[in-house]
Amino acid sequence: MPAATGHEVLAAVLQVRADELQVLLWQRGMDPDRGRWALPGGALGADEDVEESVRRQLAEKVDVRGVTHVEQLGVFSAPHRVPGVRLVATAFLGLVPSDVDPAVPPDTAWHPVDRLPATAFDHAEIVEDARERLRAKLSYTNLGFALAPREFTVSALRDLYVAALGHPVSATNLQRVLTRRGVLAATGETAAPGPAGGRPAAVFRFTERALRVTDASAVLRPPGVRDSAGE
Amino acid sequence: MPAATGHEVLAAVLQVRADELQVLLWQRGMDPDRGRWALPGGALGADEDVEESVRRQLAEKVDVRGVTHVEQLGVFSAPHRVPGVRLVATAFLGLVPSDVDPAVPPDTAWHPVDRLPATAFDHAEIVEDARERLRAKLSYTNLGFALAPREFTVSALRDLYVAALGHPVSATNLQRVLTRRGVLAATGETAAPGPAGGRPAAVFRFTERALRVTDASAVLRPPGVRDSAGE
DNA sequence: CCAAAAGTGTTTAGTGTACACCCATGC
DNA sequence: GCATGGGTGTACACTAAACACTTTTGG
């Protein structure tokens, strides 16, 4: 006999804009928490699971083709996380490549995750979880593909990693590590240098645009199996 | 205006018993799915979040002191995953050290995860997710502490890893890797050899009994920071 | 020629696997 | 002594960080 509760889905959609990691929020026009900024989302529909629901709700805010990766973060269920009726939330992380600028409704805006405005309910906590998840997965998976344009230079990619990780990243080592793991591949093209000159940069591409774990640890690996990421 | 739905929590409690990874299940006495085996769990209470709820529900089935680690796996929300009312489930992974044998009610039993009996609803999928989560975390965290007794020999620990991972593990390398990461420490004691003789094994202990990531990859690490696990 | 930006080479450190070998016990 | 199981030493392969150096452009 489960108690009747509502269920909503919420999405922390992250994108690197202007060299900062930003999140898409909309400003509530009604109480409770009128004027505060909230994550896009809404009620779970009767004929959908939470994954379908979050994609449907996102489609109402942004051009979904821009969202290259969506994954579940977890459940937020503090009894009074929202005033009034009991409402359990399933939170998601969404990622948008840096070269798209999806049209969004007038009450929505991007905000740097480091300097959030006044947020509604427990949404700041969800944004923090999303940022943590992104940080962790950037280093042991190929998740960078979801933040980067289809083609890019290594220094552009480095800037994305710097914004998302929050600490300096060497372009030299980034290129070498990702290439060795078989995550990056050169297209053979080069990009034109900027106004100050400099050697033209080689253009790279992610070899896959689906999540893959690239840094499986050794204790886990069955004996005799060489790490095959490099092939 | 969220639709009214029920919310339940479910726990896949895993333990290595008789050199096999097993899960605690109870046999349903009522329709639907009468006679099939189900995960322990139940409805989310009005004044608890899902973490509190799963601990409360587990306390009704097993001695909770035996459960050394609980973590959220995710939401299962297919519209008709349970017949009748809409019911969303938050699934958890729980781990019990191999040296405890908690008292359980008569309708519950441990089953090897490789040979599950007929299971209720989507519970087999949850068990599979739990096993996957355990496998992954064993290799890049110190999660072994949650499967092992407080003190143990390396070969006993090896047997736990073999059961959980499902592939051979070298005791030599397991010891070296975990020691180097600062996860294991010798107590100075030795265990008595078996009837067939053999050198007495040194007794080890996990240095921490809380989850810690031990294999942070390098790209993630800020420059100038040495991996400090070994200290 | 110089500054700027990109990319390569090389050194050093660390990690995990494999395997040979030595150690401590029961019989 | 010998079988048995436990533990160490060592060699090898691979990974990544740091940094010097070269390459290619614009002015």
Automatic annotation (TrEMBL), chains A, B:
SUPFAM superfamilies: Nudix, Winged helix' DNA-binding domain. It comes from the Bacteria. Residues 5-134 form the Nudix hydrolase domain. This is 8-oxo-dGTP diphosphatase. It comes from Pseudonocardia oroxyli.
